[in-house]
Each structure stands twice: as structure tokens, then as C-alpha cells.
Specification:
mainly alpha, 2 strands
Length: 120
Amino acid sequence: MAGTRTPRMRSMRFIETRAALLFISPWIIGFLIFTAWPVINSAYLSLTDYDVINDPSFIGFDNYVTLFEDPKVGLALRNTFLFTVMSVPTQLVVSSGWRCCSTAPPGPPASSARPSSCRR
């Protein structure tokens, strides 16, 4: 029958699963330490009144209310948007032009004495 598994098949699957988890465990640990923990801690601290010296005290969304009421925030967001809209296309055009100008025209293949990264 196709639906029944022998104990040997189950143990083999367990061994493969355990091996897979051992191989990805460094990535999982790194993700938890360097990504998940900082994001969770930042979210918690954004909801508190914290000045590094005293313990954080929970104030809810008051920090966000203060943030959106500040006129400088709108100006900063506008400047960031304008900078991005102007700099990203400019960098794309300049880098594409530089790439087109720096490549050699097609010709005979380069000598095999040079590494492939140096060939034009």
C-alpha cells in the first residue's frame, strides 16, 4: 500500500529532518539574534519613555502622536522622498553609461593566461 510507512522509513525521515535542522540552525540563530531580537526590542522601546539612565516606562502610542504632530517630520519625509526620486534614477543612468563606456567592443577572445575577471 502506498499510504503505509515502515518503521525504517519513519526513522530515515527523522534522521533527514534532524540533519536539515542542524544545517539551518546557524542561520536561525543568527536571524534570531541579529534581526528578530532588535526588531522586537525596538518595537517595545518605541512604546515606552526611556532615557537610558532610568528604566523604561510604558506610555503607549504617545511617542507616535508626538511624532506625527511635529512639523519637522513632514519636512524630513518630503526631503527624503525628493532625494530618493532624484538620486536613484541619476545613479542608474550614470552607472549604466559608465558600464557601456568601460566595456571593450567585441573582438577575438582574450588570452587564456589572464583570469576571466580581467578579460574584456
